[in-house]
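Submission sheet (multi-component)
Chains listed below:
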Amino acid sequence: MSRALHIDDGFIWLLRILAITVIALVVAVAYVLVTGSAEAWHQFGFSFLLGREWDPIMDSYGALPFIVGSLLTAFLALLVSIPFSLSIALYLGEFFQRGRLSAIFTSLVELLAGIPSVIYGFWALFYLVPVVRWLEDRLGLPPLGVGILSAAWILAIMIIPFSASIAREVIRMVPVGLKEAAYALGATHFEVVRDVILPVGRSGIFAGIMLSLGRALGETMAVTMVIGNSNYMPTSLFDPANTIASLVANEFAEADSSLYMSGLVELGLILFLMTGIINLGGRVVIRRLSK
Amino acid sequence: MKLATTISAHTRRRYLYDVLFRVLIFSLCALAILPLFFIFGFIFSKGASALDLEFLISLPKSIGEPGGGVLNAITGSVLLVALASLMALPLGVASGTYLSEYRGSKLSQVLGQAVEVLNGVPSIVIGLVAYELVVRPMGGFSALSGGIALGLMMIPVIARSTEETLRMLPPSLKEASLALGASYSATLLRVILPAGLSGIITGVLVSLARVAGETAPLLFTAFGNPFVNWDLSKPVSSLPSLIFNYAVSPYEDWHRLAWGSACVLLLGILGLNMLSRWLSRKWRWY
Amino acid sequence: MNKYVASMLIGLATASGVWAQGEILGAGATFPYPLYSKMFNEYYAKKNVKVNYQSIGSGGGIKQIMSETVDFGATDAFLDEEQLKSAKRPLIHIPIVLGAVTVTYNLEGVSSLRLTPTVLADIFLGKITKWNDARIAQLNTGVRLIDKSIVLVHRSDGSGTTSIFTDYLAKVSPEWKNKVGAGKSVKWPTGLGAKGNEGVAGLVKQMPGSISYVELAYTRQNKMPVATLQNKAGNWVQPSLQSTTAAAAIKIPDDTRVNLTNSDVKDGYPIAAFTWIVVYQDQNYSNRSQAKAESLAKLLWWMVHEGRAYSEALDYSNLPPDALAKAEINLKKLSFGNTKLLP
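Outcome: structure written.
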């Protein structure tokens, strides 16, 4: 009897230790980022965030171009993707909740979510960039092809499944009674969506959008391949740029001074905090909804 | 007798809006998945032609020479994913189990938050952290550091799916086992976890599919290798990093190898997804 | 059945190189990568020693050798005094071959283009923005230049090729020298970035109207057009094995760190350069084994001797006698503690 209890104790302790290890790993992530960026923080303080010049030669670093690059591509991608992901969410969450077609469509959307970033980038480089190049040529702009527009476009395609799946759950959670009542009163599908589902599911849908934003900010490979890799502040959608993620991917292996490394780690910390806060916000809203 | 022939103009307009709306939704949905067909179409048509025996079992030739294969990348990806799973399985399943069993406890709440945070960490940041935590102390790039980086990304997915699976099990299962006198650990190991096995395995397969395609965490951890490497302490190649390097190059032949690798990668991910779906349907215990 | 399985496993193991002796890890310049990848393939075939070379750019090569994460670093931008001082212990430069930085472009129907140094500099300064600009047209009468914007592509990573190219531009254009300067990473007035010689060549090949600077082997292998440049002596010179070799016919310092740009030689190509491998002189550091050090020394010796057989097919020029002699002297300095590694 006591042996069984000992095994039990041991087992529970094993579970606890493994659980604590996971927590420790997450703490380690934060710790590495904070200590790694200490040097750059001491050297530059807030001017790191506002500085416009990323200058490895002079060992002076300002991250604003990349923060702007990240936010610009992510928000643009978000804007473009919202109509699509909402449509998918409505389609699967309201109009075709069951049935063969719905199952197939769900699988297709899941497949979209499963395609690796580098394959998206590969495809975008060969098929989206030429289209953007053609567009720029038509508009009389330098036909670069690569740049913020291409990056935002492929990013939009990539994040559609994310906000779609969350929005779908939210839409499903709208009380059936409300919808049935509206239909019973003769409302059309459109009116039910506009007047019942969207208002009721508004915060949840917003949360889904926030989580998509977090995902878009963290994307690296597809963006690196089509954003044009310029360290200057972008002034238009057609400019080449860099996001925080693509810059770190480009320059990490060659950061030859400790300040340079520290600057890159600080960028990583900024990205971590940005995505962390946005994701936290999204999760909090969703949790409040499911209560 | 004519029924309701007089539909008011107002109502007609409402119906019109409805039809337009549904058409719009449907078109947007179709448009949204169009890239899927494009991407799969191009990769399979271009990639399939690259898939021959040489592709699968030989090493890359020197740059500019046609031919060669991607055995180094295929074996590298297998090694990295295996390492990642070794690390993530115990940590992920244990976390998920703890979260489901000790739902209210303080540790569980912290763990839940930690897992969510880990899930949201951008892959490039994971690579950064793995560099600082593994590559620096080890003094060099290695398959181990790459495996750890990928493992970190797998843990939250496995933890979450394990937690959800266990939560959905009927409580009578546990109660019956305990009532029969089985110890807690025996209940967990012999009754609960096996019951949730399909969900857990699904989670593992899904997380595998996710990290198999990751490149960013491997950029400064696994580094790369033109040879096949099973040594954990040495750098190793991988399909995604090969695709990245070859795709941006000017060499037509490298493009061909990249398409082929993308094809292999997609097939692998598709396979994992289908396998997980089949398993979850077949092994439904409850 | 068992024999079949066993022989299959042995076959797989052989294909995967499990029997190979040791492994050498190097990283750095993309400039010589076409040659190095050929050399290392041959070295593996002949000596059964695997050399894992990752072309991450000269900046990366320098960083990784300084961090001691690789056995050797490759760079076309030699370390300056300050960098050498900041290293933990003495480093030596071994020149391996010479290459040429070409100016490559993508312009439909234009297979040859002439550019003077000042026009070249002004293009990269962003002062000449269209292909049919009068200054380009007057150098290229008879060539149909269309009204298209010039799109500049440069390196996004720390690059020895950039260092060589900007060094040349700084020498021929005072404005470039003041405004931008020379180095592995510079503040380009305009343009797109791409990673490695591979990425730059890839982008130029895809983008009509683009122009950039890429090592000769890449443009040859991908059949990309290159500009004919006017050298210091006033002659129009195409980048080639011959013009690169000509530019190298000078005396170099003992530590072999030298810039060949804007060569005085009559038919020397103006943007030719050495590329080096950088290693620690005393190989006894960080728990390295003597066997590993010997293996590395043998590899480097092979590269500048037997390895020479592979250069010319890829349009890399072999070290002239003076440079080779100095390379050998430097190689012989390699030691493991008190033991010299090469007799």
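Remark: Chain B has two domains: 2-35, 71-282.
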